[in-house]
Amino acid sequence: MAGLAATDPAVEEVAGAAPAGRAVSARRSVLSPRTLKILRSLSPVFVLAAWQLFSSLGILDERTLASPVQLAGTAWELIGSGQLQEAIAVSARRAALGFLLGALIAFVLGGIVGLSALGDALVDPLVQMLRTLPLFGLVPLFIIWFGIKEEPKIYLVALFVIVPLYLNLVAALRGVDPDLAEVAGALRLTWTERLRHLYLPAVTPGLLVGLRQALGMAWIALIVAEQVNAGAGLGFLINNARDFLQTDVIVVGLLCYAALGLVTDWAVRLLERRALRWRDEGRSA
Question: What is the largest CA-CA distance in the chain?
Fold first, then answer.
């Protein structure tokens, strides 16, 4: 028996896997979660310090890439003149309008496709075709169709928002347990009750994932959209600085885009924690 156990491949596999598992566990426990959190916070500081050091030593030409100290001074000047706040407000307004329009369209189309076989047959192929299009290639057409004012910028952002939200919403609706849907029908639940107790808890995780993806795509689309004859906003600030080779202003504008993206992503993650807690409390009740 002892000999069979020693030569059994399954036993050897398990025996060999155990030390590896312990090694992985030990490796993960070398640094405490608090230490890892501190390192995560300090990593951008290390990058900025190295950036400033290379600029001070002349390794990085400040005419090509401004130093962090120069960027801070430029940002302060732009804030003092009010240019930066105005540009951020204009860009945020465009992103918000485009996102709201795209989200509305995505919710309508996703609801039709996710809850109706007929809608799936008629609408989904069209959205899948839209998904395969090079959306940035539509910019010239948008200019021809909608002019060079605000409309093409907002519509381009909306177009980028539609697909990720739609795909995640449809997938979540299709993942609703059909047995639960039958029970809801047998109990004669109203549409509002089904929405609250069946569909919302089921689609919330997927919908929030789609929301984060859509917000990220919205800011990417806005960066491109604001390169098209923008008379205000961060894109205008960057284009104007490009004409005068002001790399410090260009980088400040790009960092503002990044900061806006991080803020919206943080807001969605906060919403995600609260929404999933509400969903879990609803299930336990």
Answer: 85
Residue 25: its pLDDT value, please?
44
Domain-located, residue 62: no
Q: Which domain holds residue 31?
A: 2-56
Q: What is the rounded CA–CA span in Å between residue 124 and residue 118?
A: 10
CA 53, CA 30: separation in Å to the nearest integer?
Answer: 31
d(CA 198, CA 249): 50
Q: Write the CB contacts of 217 (distance below 8 Å, at least 6 apart in sequence).
A: 160, 161, 163, 164
Query: DSSP 3-state assignment of 229?
Result: coil
129-133, 168-172, 248-252: which range is least confident on average? 129-133
From CA 62, how far away is CA 26, in angstroms rounded?
45
SS (H, E, C) 79-109: HHHCHHHHHHHHHHHHHHHHHHHHHHHHHHH
Tell whether 13 is covered by a domain. yes
Of 23-37, 91-105, 140-154, 212-226, which gets the smallest average pLDDT?
Answer: 23-37
Q: How far apart are the first and last CA of the chain?
A: 53
Mean pLDDT calculated for residue range 130-148: 82
- d(CA 245, CA 182) in angstroms, rounded, equals 65
Is the distance from CB of 145 to CB of 213 less than 8 angstroms?
Answer: no
Which candidate, 134, 212, 123, places its Cα nearest to that of 170? 123
Let me know: does 253 contact 66? Beta carbons within 8 Å. no
Q: Please state, rounded to an integer, the average pLDDT across all residues of the chain.
A: 80
Q: Encoding tokens for residue 193?
A: 């009750």
Q: Does residue 61 lie within any of the structural domains?
A: no
